[in-house]
Amino acid sequence: xxxxxxxxxxxxxxxxxxxxxxxxxxxxxxxxxxxxxxxxxxxxxxxxxxxxxxxxxxxxxxxxxxxxxxxxxxxxxxxxxxxxxxxxxxxxxxxxxxxxxxxxxxxxxxxxxxxxxxxxxxxxxxxxxxxxxxxxxxxxxxxxxxxxxxxxxxxxxxxxxxxxxxxxxxxxxxxxxxxxx
Length: 181
Hints:
Elements: H1 3-9, H2 12-18, H3 24-32, H4 36-81, H5 86-103, E1 113-120, E2 138-148, E3 151-152, E4 156-157, E5 162-172
Antiparallel strand pairs: 1-2, 2-5, 3-4
């Protein structure tokens, strides 16, 4: 292979520098820029990679909160309607809520977490439905969790914007079930 063919295979800039009569300044400039592409690639790579990893961590936390709130609402509603009286049912629902959140690595006492339980006896409920509890009572459980978006490495969440995730579960105490134990 000739020197000109070798130089043209390396690219137009090198072909110009390798050509006979090319200036020494051009050859020197090409030597000085060697390794600049690696630095540029590193800067661009980190500029794109750090926000991408950060977004992935936040989305993972959002997904975890979505699963936790949905499971906690469903489980709290399920154990509420199987209770023997209103106080026991509320206590059991609260316990189920705390246990489910704990299984997802969240604390129920965290100010970002919350559960609201609303029970009522609709007009069509059975005669045993009194005091917002009994056969035919309708129950609504709403669980919410605020996922922080602002985080600092090694410190965790800081005050700032957040995404509130919530789940609602509606259920009914079995109309034909006897509640006395």
